[in-house]
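Support reply, case 0932

Customer input (verbatim):
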Amino acid sequence: MIANAVFRRETERKLRRELDTVLAHSHHLSQAAALDRSAVKSLDLAGDPVDNAQAVESREFSQLSCARLAARAKRLRAALVRAQKGEYGSCDECGDAIPLVCLRAIVDVTTCVHCQELLERAA
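Our regenerated output:
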């Protein structure tokens, strides 16, 4: 039981650190995106088409990155809740234990290797 309690505390700390990192990156990116939006608004559309295209591309990249970071933060929060409930490390599909090597590699993993392969084949 001690090993499980220690693993749980370590997992929760790791998840919190990673979540904090993702949220910090997201905040930084949101600020940069706000600057990009104001730069795009200030562009003269009759101006240099290359500058306009680069500004729009930069804005779209920032928006995509923000969306990916938000999704990552959501998965990390869900993993943290599972860890707090003692459900972390169980496959959402079959209920079997997810190997530690997988949990260490991808802290927000929700399926075992077998079920993940089945899900990917079905998709």
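We compared this against your earlier run and they match. Two observations from our side: Residues 95 and 101 are 17 Å apart (CA to CA). The radius of gyration is 20 Å. Please reopen the case if you see a mismatch on your end.
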